[in-house]
């Protein structure tokens, strides 16, 4: 069986909750590219297995990734950061539609580079990084600081549309993603895995 057939089967096997599907449609209308259902389902499993009580995500979009994380750990408190007020407003509506109490969602408007240095070190079970790809290395560095011992940092889209696997592709962003993957998977200080499902997901769990 070909890799493409396997990938198609995996994509089609995911059952996305209706409230997340509606948020996905809103995200596309706003031009905010959401994570794929396959990646979302993986994130939900990671949040559930923690089990996560405190989650932070960089890049809210219309709430798709946040909803998947809360789907996995419905008792968690989610802090979500985005510089687009329109995205945050759509996400708030999506969280409300899912039945998530607004007391468990903290929306912060601002650029990640400005907000992240102010966040508490070692305070989060799961850190999702899905914004400003040109700053992905700095965001991962912050993410590892924010994650508690044994916490997990998630980096979707890390395959950069397949470019990281193309040795001819040497643009700066591809090089950053490629270097991040190689350095993380080779580091003895973390437990890391790379999923090729959907747009790709790098999973980095810190030492306990």
Description of the molecule:
- By secondary structure, the chain is an alpha/beta fold.
- It has a single domain (3-206), classed as Vaccinia Virus protein VP39 (Rossmann fold, 3-Layer(aba) Sandwich), CATH 3.40.50.
- The protein is 42% helix and 21% strand.
- It has a seven-stranded mixed sheet with strand order 3-2-1-4-5-7-6, sandwiched between helices.
- Helix 2 (18-30) runs antiparallel to helix 5 (85-97) and helix 3 (37-49) runs parallel beside helix 4.
- It is globular, with a radius of gyration of 16 Å.
- The mean pLDDT is 95.
Q: How would you describe this structure in keywords?
A:
208 residues, Rossmann fold, globular, alpha/beta
Q: What do the pLDDT scores average to?
A: 95
Oligomeric form: single chain
- The level 1 CATH classification is Alpha Beta
Low-confidence stretches: none
Main sheet? 7 strands, mixed
Assigned CATH architecture: 3-Layer(aba) Sandwich
DSSP summary, beta strand count: 7
- How many discrete domains? 1
The helix content, as a percent range, equals 40-55%
- Tally of separate helices: 8
Estimate what percentage of residues fall within beta strands: 15-25%
In whole angstroms, the N-to-C terminal distance is: 39 Å
Structural class determined from secondary elements: alpha/beta
Cα radius of gyration in angstroms: 16 Å
Q: CATH superfamily, please? A: Vaccinia Virus protein VP39
CATH topology: Rossmann fold
Coarse morphology: globular
Describe the structure concisely for a colleague:
By secondary structure, this protein is an alpha/beta fold. The protein is 42% helix and 21% strand. The mean pLDDT is 95.
């Amino acid at each position: 069986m070909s890799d493409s057939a396997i990938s198609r089967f995996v994509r089609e096997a995911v059952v996305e909750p209706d409230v997340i599907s509606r948020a996905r449609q809103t995200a596309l209308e706003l031009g905010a590219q959401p994570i794929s259902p396959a990646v979302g389902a993986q994130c939900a499993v990671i949040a559930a297995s923690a089990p996560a009580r405190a989650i932070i995500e960089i890049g809210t979009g219309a709430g798709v990734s946040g909803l998947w994380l809360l789907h996995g750990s419905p008792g968690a408190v989610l802090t979500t950061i985005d510089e687009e007020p329109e995205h945050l407003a759509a996400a708030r509506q999506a969280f409300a539609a899912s039945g998530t109490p607004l007391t468990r969602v903290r929306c912060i408007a601002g650029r990640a580079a400005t907000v992240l240095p102010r966040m508490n070190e070692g305070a989060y079970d799961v850190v999702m990084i899905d914004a400003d790809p040109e700053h992905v290395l700095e965001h991962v560095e912050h993410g590892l600081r924010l994650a508690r011992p044994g916490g997990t940092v998630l980096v979707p889209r890390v395959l950069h549309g397949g470019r990281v696997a193309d040795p001819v592709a040497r643009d700066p962003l591809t090089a950053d993603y490629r270097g991040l993957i190689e350095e993380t998977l080779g580091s003895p200080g973390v437990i890391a895995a790379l999923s090729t499902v959907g747009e790709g997901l790098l999973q980095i769990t810190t030492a306990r």
